[in-house]
Design goal:
Elements: E1 16-22, E2 50-56, H1 59-63, H2 72-75, E3 76-79, E4 83-84, H3 96-101, E5 107-114, E6 130-138, E7 142-146, H4 149-153, E8 170-175, E9 178-182, H5 227-235, H6 243-283, H7 285-383, E10 386-389, E11 399-402, E12 405-406, H8 418-442, E13 450-451, E14 458-460, H9 467-471, H10 478-481, E15 482-484, H11 493-513, H12 517-527, H13 536-548, H14 550-558
Antiparallel strand pairs: 1-8, 2-3, 2-4, 2-5, 5-6, 7-9, 8-9, 10-11, 11-12, 13-14, 14-15
């Protein structure tokens, strides 16, 4: 069993806060006493239990107090409230002013009463109520039971019953350091009152200072009769006392004296030891205080450093949380970026495949277009064949014909008739038709648009003019807007020469389109000279040969005109 914190020799009344009782008897009945029936409840076996306790001073303590007499009523210093309907009463705590007033008290009398009056508002009256149990309590003579009453109730067995029976009642004292059991003992002989315990029928037997059981000698005392009178009444029957009883009383008295002397000596020895311990502890108080102050300062420094470390740890945790959130956000962004990259890569692959398919389709279409162009050109040269006649007009120069009509030769000055001029007009109309057809096949825009009207064709000087504007009456003079590629007289040759010069510019553009650099460069140089009209037949002949030769086919197949599929 765990020992109490406070040593028993230092315990006094100020340490007691509560009084508990357990297993109060229900069938306790009073002996019939004359003059007491009218002051008690008429039932002999009550169906419930109502109880309270009274604390009184011992006779030896009351002698030293001048304000108290030696009567029972004057020695009482506290009466508890009545607890009804329970065999295990828990009374209210002893008031603080009572404990302060009797703080140094080490011996007192505890009396347990049954409240026997009828009424809803009980008022305890020790003079008329039934006294169930009374004992002398010494604060240094108690035994530790448990730290709390709940633990004490939960113990499997309580060996502290009054009559050592399993159903007899028990009284406990609650102090600041636990629950204690007051060891049963009687009053000392020097107190003036023998140690008696009044017990009624059905309750615990009487315990005396001699350690003998006198349960058979029931004391039918009146509540107002003093205990001394009760003892005298018990001794009235002298004839019942034997010599053995006298010897027993003498032996008990002598033993009690020896025990009292031993107890007194023991108490004095304990007090000396206590004073010695107090002096020794006082000598070490200064050293302990200094050590305590040093330890307190060190503890304060350690606590302060610990608090700082805790704050730093919290800051690191917050920073780690921020970094973790940043890393998580960046990881999410990286995942999104990788997803976009994968999607773009897939789109690029898909677009590359689609572009490759489109290029293949375009290549096939380009091949078909080239074949169609070659077919159209062959048909065109079949309709307008260009031949070189060996007949020399002047100084061995060759004569070129297109569609059976001779191209003009401007160096010819003699033999120019109206029929020759009309033939030149037909030949230039065929040339204009061939140039327009080739430009249409390759999608080429001519710098000088052609107005093809057979033998009455024109070359527009200003680019971007529509045919309607050219043919309109208000389109301006012929020399200002359009130049004729035809004539009826020899006097029309200068205008025809200027028109042929513009026509040669269109032919040079076609050469650039079909990537004949050698021909186009030669044509460009010829166009810059006034005699460019003499080279028209030669250039048309070479162009027909190039377009009809395998090289021309290869050139045409490599050439992709703008604005074509």
């Amino acid at each position: 069993m765990v020992s109490a914190i406070l040593p028993s020799e230092f315990r006094c009344f100020r340490h007691i806060t509560y009084v508990y009782a357990r297993n109060l008897p229900i069938h306790a009945t009073e002996a019939q006493v004359e003059g007491t029936c009218e002051r008690r409840c008429p039932q002999q076996q009550p169906s419930h239990v109502s109880s309270y306790f009274v604390l009184s001073l011992t006779p030896s303590s009351s002698r030293g107090c001048p304000i108290l007499n030696n009567s029972d009523e004057d020695r009482r210093f506290y009466i508890s409230e009545v607890r009804s309907g329970t065999r295990h009463p828990v009374w209210r705590h002893i008031p603080l002013e009572i404990r302060k007033r009797f703080a140094s008290l080490t011996r007192f009398v505890l009396s347990l009463y049954y409240y026997s009056a009828c009424g809803t508002d009980p008022h305890p009256n020790p003079d008329t109520d039934f006294l169930l149990y009374e004992m002398l309590v010494e604060t240094s003579h108690v035994q530790y039971v448990a730290p709390s009453m709940t633990k004490a109730d939960s113990l499997p067995q309580l060996p502290y019953h009054v009559d050592s029976g399993p159903n007899s009642f028990v009284v406990f004292l609650r102090c600041a350091d636990g629950i204690f059991f007051p060891l049963h003992q009687g009053m000392r002989a020097g107190d003036g009152v023998p140690s008696t315990v009044q017990v009624r029928e059905g309750t615990a037997p009487l315990v005396t200072a001699l350690g003998t059981s006198v349960a058979s000698a029931v004391l039918p005392v009146s509540p107002r009769e003093s205990r001394s009178g009760a003892v005298l009444r018990l001794i009235d029957g002298v004839e019942s006392i034997t010599l053995g009883d006298v010897k027993t009383c003498a032996t008990g008295t002598l033993a009690w004296s020896y025990l009292s002397e031993l107890a007194t000596a023991r108490r004095e020895e304990q007090e000396r030891l206590a004073y010695a311990r107090a002096g020794k502890s006082y000598q070490t108080t200064s050293t302990a205080a200094s050590r305590y102050a040093l330890l307190e300062s060190r503890l304060a420094n350690v606590l302060k450093q610990q608090e700082q470390r805790i704050q730093e740890v919290h800051q690191l945790l917050n920073r780690c949380e921020e970094v973790r959130q940043s890393v998580s956000s960046q990881q999410q962004q990286l995942d999104v970026l990788e997803k976009v990259i994968h999607e773009n890569e897939a789109h690029r692959v898909h677009a590359g495949a689609a572009l490759k398919d489109r290029e293949e389709r375009l290549s096939a279409l380009s091949t078909q277009l080239d074949e169609a162009r070659r077919a159209r050109l062959r048909e065109l040269w079949e309709l307008f064949p260009v031949h070189k006649e060996p007949t020399s007009v002047n100084d061995g120069e060759a004569v070129f014909t297109i569609g059976g009509h001779r191209l003009p030769y401007w160096s010819q000055t003699t033999g120019v008739t109206a029929d020759l001029v009309r033939e030149w007009s037909l030949a230039l109309g065929c040339v204009a038709h061939v140039v327009s057809a080739i430009a249409s096949l390759y999608g080429c825009t001519l710098p000088h648009p052609l107005l093809v009207c057979g033998a009455h064709s024109y070359v527009l000087r200003r680019p971007g003019l529509s045919a309607a504007t050219v043919l309109s009456p208000g389109g301006g003079s012929s020399g200002e807007v359009r130049l004729p590629l035809h004539g009826t007289r020899a006097s029309d040759r200068p205008a025809m020469a200027a028109a042929v010069q513009l026509l040669m510019t269109n032919v040079a553009t076609l050469f650039n389109v079909i990537e004949e650099a050698s021909i186009s460069s030669g044509v460009t140089s010829v166009v810059e000279t006034p005699e460019s009209v003499r080279c028209l037949g030669d250039k048309l002949y070479r162009l027909s040969q190039v377009l009809q030769s395998p090289k021309g086919d290869h050139t045409v197949s490599r050439t992709r005109a703008p604005n074509t599929i």
